[in-house]
Amino acid sequence: MSNPRPPKKAKSARAGQPAAESRRTRGRRPTADVADLRAQLLDAALACFARQGIAATSLRDIAAEAKVTPALVHYYFGDKAQLQQAVVAEKLLPVIVQLREPLAQAGDDVAALVAGFVHGVGGIVARHPWLPALWVREVLCEGGALRDVLLHQVGPLVPKMMAARFAEAQRHGKLNPDLDPRLLMVSLVGLTFFPLASAPIWRALFGAQEVDFDALRRHTLVLLDRGLELENGQ
């Protein structure tokens, strides 16, 4: 009697798709489809990165956050470096683009540009509360894993664009000539991201639990408005 044919090998899964069901013999089986599971893993990575830092986060930590096996995280992203690149490309940069688009429509109106930035930052932080903590931890802190991303990818999208717009307004007499357009952008970041990232501290320090983002936004705009006025009051 001839030997029975060996069973056909299952086709290997394409990149970004889960392995065949028969290969998942251990751990939890995800019930979401491929796109939802991938997004779930990226969200879990963001939560871990913002909470404990990129360097201190392992694939096992991300798997625990997403309630899947570490092997599944490895299957989708290969290693931590590739997962970090995916987080930047698919989560961080699209958020920055959301901020840039309304700013591009402000024209040469400095007040509209400033207000658009203040409102925009508040809006994206409301939708993506991980952003301020991640920015402080991974951009401002020495050795932060996202500093190069800020300098080479985020920087041209918003900070450099706004500084150039401020410089143009200044050349046309629409901005206080004593201001440095670059430092004005630095001030805007300091007056938006810092208060949002440190809100638990200053609310506790001043007993200011009632101060919400709308109050913070109004305060910031009034503060900036006084500094943006020309000497002749125009």
From TrEMBL:
Which segments carry the region annotation Disordered? 1-32
Task: Please note every region of biased composition (Basic residues).
Answer: 1-12
This chain's source organism reads Pseudoxanthomonas wuyuanensis
Question: What is the name listed in the Swiss-Prot or TrEMBL entry for this protein?
Answer: Transcriptional regulator, TetR family
Q: Which domain of life is it from?
A: Bacteria
User: A Pfam family this protein belongs to?
Assistant: TetR_N
Q: Which residues bind DNA?
A: 58-77
Q: Which UniProt keywords apply?
A: DNA-binding, Transcription, Transcription regulation
> Has the keyword Nucleotide-binding been applied to this entry?
no
Q: Where is the HTH tetR-type domain?
A: 35-95
What are the GO MF terms of this UniProt record?
DNA-binding transcription factor activity; transcription cis-regulatory region binding
State whether keyword DNA-binding applies. Answer: yes
